[in-house]
Amino acid sequence: MDGTALGDLKVVEYASFVAGPYCAKLLADMGADVVKIEEPGSGDLSRAHGPFPDRLPHAERSGLFLYVNTNKRGVTLDLTDPAGYRLFQALVREADVFVQDRSPKEAKELGVDYDSLKGLNPRLIVTSITPFGQTGPYADFKAYDLNISHSGVEGYAVPGGLGHKMFPDRPPLRLGGYATDYSAGLSAAAGTMMAVLAREIYGVGQHVDLSRQETELAMNRVSMVTYFAEGKVVSRDTRNYPFGGTFPTRDGEVIIRPTENGHWGALARVMGKPELADDPRFKNRPDRTNNSGALNAIVAEWASQHSKGEIFDLCRTGGCPAAIYADAQEVMESPQVRSRGFFQEVDHSVAGRWEYPTAPYQFSETPWSVRRPSPLLGEHNRQVFEGRLGLSSQDMARLKANKVI
Question: What b-and-e string marks burial along 168-197, b requiring 16 or more CB atoms within 10 Å of the CB?
């Protein structure tokens, strides 16, 4: 052990863009030795996606790639070449976990599927992250964050609440950023760790089959249960609180949710209208639901006269649930986030020194740390292929000349 939570775990990653790399990053952040395999010459797709410093595209300066691949070692390897595949097999023989994101058909053709690998290493855990899982009529379909956002229900209900009221004619939207990919990566990492624990008991590896669609469906379980139980489809028009919700302020938006009677009484006092607590239109939750239009009009008028920070502080100390909608700058400058060291500087040899989001957890005995920045394309070829697998410098020169690495 090296003082990290997963210092004894060896991981090989053959995945691109966000979901698979994020799964492996979470393991790497907890100490796992992750070797990331990229295609020679081109590398991970995320290298071509920004944001880029100074808005100048560069394969080694992609903010997306830099974030999703910290704490990994990177090699280049062409698995379609027999020599490249033999090197891949050598890495897998000594690995604990293999993370890949190829479709079932492509994985089988490349020889990176579970059935092709379990004979090499019976203790190997293979985590496959695909749009629709390993089975079913959609198993080999391609999909991106946009497709998954809508096939997983969420897209149909975005934007809801105030967003829909402000722009009722706009079409459905996907979630911002690559939210479904990050959810899939997180779920895959959790499933992988369950398989690691199971191996401690049973002594054998297994296949972790992660469907990105099903991950999103699980995230939207309330929408699904609403349909199963009540036959109602949650949409942009119906996804809203019966009363309360999002309100514009002088400098942004807040969410105020006076669900319980005590909450409503507290909000009435905060607004300087304590008599509203006993108003028969709003006295109980059913009353507030039936008169939501009048209630929301009162709250909206009050909110429009204050800043979101003022409203948050008043509600927080007064006893009514409320939160602000923070932009990126406000989050970066948050004293709470700063006090916990969530943003840390990472120095990259090409991209330079920037602040990165880190981990949402802190371990008392095995602390998180940035051990290395995201790898340059093929940066650790010599370290891994010579140092770990025993290749000679002549072998390396020949493989490079043949574009295997």
Answer: eeeeebbbeebbbbbbbbebbbebbbebbe
Q: How far apart are CA 196 and CA 190, in angstroms?
A: 10
How many Å apart are CA 171 and CA 360, to the nearest integer? Answer: 33
Those residues whose C-beta lies under 8 Å from the C-beta of residue 128, and which sit 6 or more positions away, are 100, 101, 102, 104, 107, 113, 114, 134, 207, 208, 209, 210
Rounded Cα distance between 219 and 192, Å, is: 18
Share of the chain above pLDDT 70, in %: 100
> Following DSSP, what letter does each residue of 320-384 receive, concatenated?
--EEE---HHHHHT-HHHHHTT-EEEEEETTTEEEEEE--S---SSS-----SPPPPTTTTHIII
DSSP string, 249-287: -SSSEEEE---SHHHHHHHHHHTT-GGGGG-TTTSSHHH
- Angle 179-202/19-29 helices, nearest 10 degrees? 50
Q: Which helix (H) or strand (E) holds 289?
A: helix 285-290
Task: Tell me how far apart the alpha carbons of residues 119 and 267 are, in angstroms, rounded to a whole number.
Answer: 64
Q: What is the pLDDT of residues 87-124, one digit of tens each?
A: 999 999 999 999 999 999 999 999 999 999 999 999 99
Q: Quote the CA–CA distance of 382 and 400 in Å, as a whole number.
A: 11
- Global pTM reads 0.93
Q: 130-134: long-range contacts (C-beta < 8 A, 24 or more apart)?
A: 130/101, 130/102, 130/103, 130/104, 130/210, 130/211, 130/212, 131/211, 131/212, 131/213, 132/211, 132/212, 132/213, 133/209, 133/210, 133/211, 133/213, 133/214, 134/104, 134/207, 134/209
Q: Is residue 21 within 8 Å of residue 184, measured between CB atoms?
A: no
Name the helix (H) or strand (E) containing 246: strand 245-248
Q: Which residues of 265-287 are buried (b: 16+ CB within 10 A; e: fewer)?
A: bbbbbbbeeeebbebeebbebeb
